[in-house]
Amino acid sequence: MLSLSVGIYLFISIAIGLIASFRVRNTSDFVLAGRKLPLLLSGSVIFATWFGSETILGASSAFIEDGLLGVIEEPFGAFLCLFLVGVLFAKKIYKLNVLTISDLFRNRFGNFFELPSSILMVITFFGWIAGQFVALGVVVHSITGMDFYLAMTICSGLVMLYTITGGMWAVAFSDLIQSVLIVVGILLAFFFLNTDVKPVTELIAAAPENQFRFFPETGLNNWLEYIAAWITLGLGAIPSQDIFQRVLSAKDEKTAFNSTLLGAFLYLILAIFPLLLALYAKDLLPADTFTDTQLMLPHLVINYLPLWIQIVFFGALISAILSTSSGALLAPATIFAENIYKHYQSEISDKTLLAVLRWSVLGIGLFSLLMGFYQGNIYELVAGASSLTLVCFFVPLVVALWFPKINGKAAFVSMISGLLFWIVFEFMNPIIPTSIGGLAGSALGLFLAEYVLRMKQASSKLNY
C-alpha cells in the first residue's frame, strides 16, 4: 500500500507538469512563469528552494553525528541566505529586466564576463541536482526495496519529464501542493511520536551535552570553521540562478519581497522538525538497523508510525525532493540556453530557444544523474556546489548591484581569483577553511585589480 501510494503520488506530479505545459507559450512562461506568481505560489517556490533532501535526510544525519554545530550550514545558513535575499536583494533584483544572473553580469560588466561566468554557474548546479537524485533513490529504495541505482534513475527521469513539459509553471503548481504535504507530513510524524511514543523533552534532556551546542569551543580554527559553515550557503547561495529565478517569477516587486521572507521563516520553522525526528531515530532504532545515517528517518517512519502517516510522510519527503530537484534543473538549463547557446547563436527565434531550454534540462539532468552514481553523500554534494558559487560570484554580484563605478575587468579578476584560491585551499588543506580562503581571494582580486586599473587611468590622464 505504501509503495502504491508513492507511485500514485509520482504519477500525479507528472500530471501536474503536463497540465502546466498548456500555460507555456514562450520562454518567459517556461523560465519565469510569465512573472505572474501571486504571494501563495511565489512563497511556495521560495520555501521549496532549500527544503529538500539535505534538510530532511542530510541535516538529520549530520545532527546526530555532530550536533547543532554539524548543521549550521543547513538549515541555519540556508535560512540566512533566504532572509538576506528578501531584505537586501529581492526588490533590487526584481527591477532588473533579465532572465538570468548572467544577463545581469553581461549588462553590468560586458560580454567578456558572460560566457565564463555562465559556464562556471552551470557547473555549480551539478552537485546540487545530484544530491536530490541520490535522495530520491534513498527514499524509494527504503520504501520498496528496489535497487538503489534503479530507483534513482527512474525518479530522476520523472523529475526531468515534468520539468521539461511545464517549466516554472510546473514547478510553481507542484511546489504549492508539495509545500502543503511537507508541512502536514513532517508535523504529523513529529506529533504522533511525541504523544504516542515519548515526549521530545525527554529526548532533549537525555541528549549528550554537546548535542545542542550552538557556538563552537574557543580556538581560532573552531571559529573559522563555524564562520565557513554560515557563509557557504548563507552567502554562497545568494548569487544562485535557482533563487534568482524564483524571485523574478513573482507578479510584482512587493510580492517578491514578501514571498521571500515568508519562504525563509516557514523554512526555518519546519527545518527544526527533521532534527527532532533524528533524536527519535537514534533513541528507538538499534544501532545496526542501518549502515548509512541518511536512512535514519525512513527507517524510523516505517517501523514506528502507522501506515496512513507513513503515506503522508513519504509523500511529503518525496514532495520536498521533487520541489528542489525541478527548480534546480530549470536554473542551469536557463543559463545554458540564454547565456551560452545564445552567445554563439544570436539570431534565434523564441520557439527554438524554448526547444533548447527543454533539451538542456534533459542533458543537465543526465549528467547530474551520473554524478550521483559516483558520490552518494547528499550533504557533501550540496555543500560543494554552494562553496563554488560563494567564491566565484558573491563579490561580483554585490559589485554589480551596489558599486556602479567598479570596472568590469576587476569583477572578472575577482571571479577568477576566487576560483584559484578555492582550488589551492581545497588541495593544500590549510588551516583556513576553503570557502573563507576562496571568498577572501575573490575580494583581494577585486581590490588589487581595481587599484591597478585606476592607477593606469590616472597615469594616462597625466600623460595626456
Characteristic terms for this protein:
464 residues, mainly alpha, Sodium/glucose cotransporter, 2 domains, 18 helices, 81% helix, globular
What's the shape? globular
| Low-pLDDT ranges | none
Series of secondary-structure elements, N-terminal to C-terminal: HHHHHHHHHHHHHHHHHH
Here the CATH topology of the largest domain equals Sodium/glucose cotransporter
Provide the CATH top-level class of the largest domain: Mainly Alpha
Task: Characterize the structure shown.
By secondary structure, the protein is mainly alpha-helical. It folds into two domains: 2-386, Up-down Bundle (Sodium/glucose cotransporter); 403-464. 81% of the residues lie in helices and 0% in strands. It is built from 18 helices and no strands. It has helices at 2-20, 27-32, 39-50, 53-66, 72-94, 101-109, 111-144, 148-197, 200-206, 220-234, 241-248, 253-284, 296-304, 307-344, 350-374, 378-402, 408-428, 434-463. Helix 1 (2-20) packs across helix 8, helix 5 (72-94) crosses helix 11 (241-248) and helix 7 (111-144) packs antiparallel against helix 16. The model has no long low-confidence stretch (mean pLDDT 85).
Helix and strand arrangement:
Elements: H1 2-20, H2 27-32, H3 39-50, H4 53-66, H5 72-94, H6 101-109, H7 111-144, H8 148-197, H9 200-206, H10 220-234, H11 241-248, H12 253-284, H13 296-304, H14 307-344, H15 350-374, H16 378-402, H17 408-428, H18 434-463
Quick recap:
This protein has helices at residues 2-20, 27-32, 39-50, 53-66, 72-94, 101-109, 111-144, 148-197, 200-206, 220-234, 241-248, 253-284, 296-304, 307-344, 350-374, 378-402, 408-428, 434-463. The chain is mostly helical and 464 residues long.
